[in-house]
C-alpha cells in the first residue's frame, strides 16, 4: 500500500460544539480543476504510476481560492529554520517557475469523516495566553496493507481553539489509503500554496523516516510545511482565519474505516508495550516552539491496548531520540 505525503488545507472547521460538517469539494471545484489540467508545462508519472502536472507557480490551484484573490505569493519564509535540502523527492523535477501538482481525479472527492475514526496521539497543551508557533518531528513511514475505503495515517496537527467554540486545524504527515480521502487533503481543493519543484502533497514516500515541520512565518502569518528540511509550501493566513498560533499540538496515528469494518492497522501494525521497546512505529525528535507547555500526555480512544496503544519512550530533549513515543497496533473490531 502506498504511503503518500499528506497536507490538509483545512482539516475541519467545527462551529459551536455540535461537530457540524460540510462538504469540502463542490461540483464547481470539479470544473475549475478540470480546466487547470488543460494547461501545464510538463506532465510525468512517478515509478508508482501517479501522474503529476507541472503547473505555473502563479496559476496553481491554491490561488483559485476566493480568499486568495489578492494574495501575494511568498516564495521564501522571512526567517527559515530549514537546513540544506536532502536528496529526496520526485524522480523528475518541474521546470523553473512551475510546481508539481498530483493529478486530480473525481473519485478523490470526499467529506470529512468522524464516525469510524480512531487515534493514538501525544497531546501537548500550551499555557493559557500563549500559543505554539512551530511543531516538528521525525516520523516513521511504514508499509501497511489495508482494505478498500480505509485510511491509516501519521500526522502532526496544530489546533487553535478560538472563541465561540471555533476550531481551526492544520496538519501534515503521511497516509496510506486506496486513493480515496477522508477530508479536503492535498491539492484536491484550493488553499495550500506549493513552492517546491520536487516535493508535493500526494507524492509517494519510501519506507523509512520523514522529518516534518509546520511553522508560522512571523512577518506574514503564513504557515510553512517542511519535509526533510526542504520547503514544500505554505498555508496562507487568509484561508485559516489568520490563525495566530496553536493552543495545542497533536502528534500520532489516525485511522478510519467505513461502517461495518474493523479498524485498519496503525503504524507498523505492532502495538507498543509499556516499559519495553518493540517494533511499533515511532515519532522521535519532537519539538514545539513559541509557547510554554502547560501539560502533555498520551491519549487514545480505543481502550484495548492490543488494538491500538501509545507509550512515551522519552520525555527528555537531550536523549539520542529526543522527546519520543511509540504508537500503533494491528487494529480490529472495537466495541
UniProtKB/TrEMBL annotation:
The keyword Transferase does not apply. Residues 112-334 form the Neprosin PEP catalytic domain. PROSITE patterns: NEPROSIN_PEP_CD. InterPro entries: Glutamic_endopeptidase (IPR053168), Neprosin (IPR004314), Neprosin_propep (IPR025521). Keywords: Signal. Residues 1-19 form the signal peptide. This is Neprosin PEP catalytic domain-containing protein.
Amino acid at each position: 500500500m502506498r504511503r503518500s505525503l499528506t497536507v490538509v488545507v483545512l482539516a475541519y472547521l467545527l462551529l459551536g460544539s455540535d461537530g457540524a460538517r460540510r462538504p469540502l469539494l463542490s461540483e464547481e471545484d470539479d470544473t475549475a480543476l478540470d480546466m487547470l489540467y488543460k494547461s501545464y508545462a510538463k506532465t510525468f508519472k512517478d515509478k508508482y504510476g501517479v501522474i503529476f502536472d507541472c503547473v505555473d507557480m502563479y496559476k496553481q490551484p491554491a490561488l483559485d481560492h476566493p480568499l486568495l484573490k489578492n494574495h501575494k505569493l511568498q516564495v521564501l519564509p522571512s526567517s527559515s529554520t530549514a537546513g540544506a535540502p536532502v536528496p529526496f523527492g520526485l524522480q523528475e523535477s518541474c521546470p523553473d517557475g512551475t510546481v508539481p501538482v498530483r493529478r486530480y481525479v473525481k473519485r478523490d472527492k470526499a467529506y470529512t469523516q468522524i464516525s469510524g475514526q480512531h487515534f493514538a496521539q501525544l497531546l501537548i497543551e500550551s499555557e493559557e495566553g500563549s500559543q505554539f508557533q512551530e511543531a516538528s518531528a521525525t516520523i516513521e513511514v511504514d508499509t501497511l496493507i489495508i482494505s478498500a475505503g480505509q485510511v491509516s495515517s501519521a500526522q502532526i496537527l496544530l489546533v487553535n481553539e478560538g472563541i465561540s467554540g471555533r476550531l481551526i486545524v492544520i496538519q501534515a504527515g503521511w497516509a496510506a489509503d486506496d486513493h480515496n480521502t477522508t477530508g479536503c487533503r492535498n491539492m484536491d481543493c484550493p488553499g495550500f500554496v506549493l513552492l517546491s519543484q520536487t516535493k508535493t502533497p500526494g507524492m509517494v514516500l519510501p519506507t523509512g523516516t520523514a522529518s516534518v515541520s509546520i511553522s508560522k512565518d512571523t512577518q506574514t502569518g503564513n504557515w510553512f510545511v517542511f519535509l526533510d528540511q526542504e520547503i514544500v509550501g505554505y498555508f496562507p493566513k487568509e484561508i485559516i482565519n489568520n490563525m495566530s498560533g496553536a493552543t495545542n499540538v497533536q502528534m500520532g496515528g489516525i485511522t478510519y474505516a467505513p461502517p461495518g469494518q474493523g479498524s485498519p492497522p496503525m503504524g507498523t501494525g505492532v502495538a507498543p508495550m509499556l516499559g519495553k521497546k518493540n517494533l511499533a512505529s515511532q515519532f522521535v525528535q519532537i519539538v514545539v516552539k513559541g509557547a510554554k507547555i502547560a501539560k502533555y500526555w498520551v491519549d487514545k480512544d480505543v481502550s484495548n491496548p492490543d488494538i491500538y496503544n501509545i507509550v512515551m519512550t522519552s520525555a527528555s530533549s537531550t536523549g539520542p531520540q529526543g522527546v519520543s513515543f511509540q504508537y500503533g497496533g494491528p487494529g480490529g473490531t472495537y466495541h
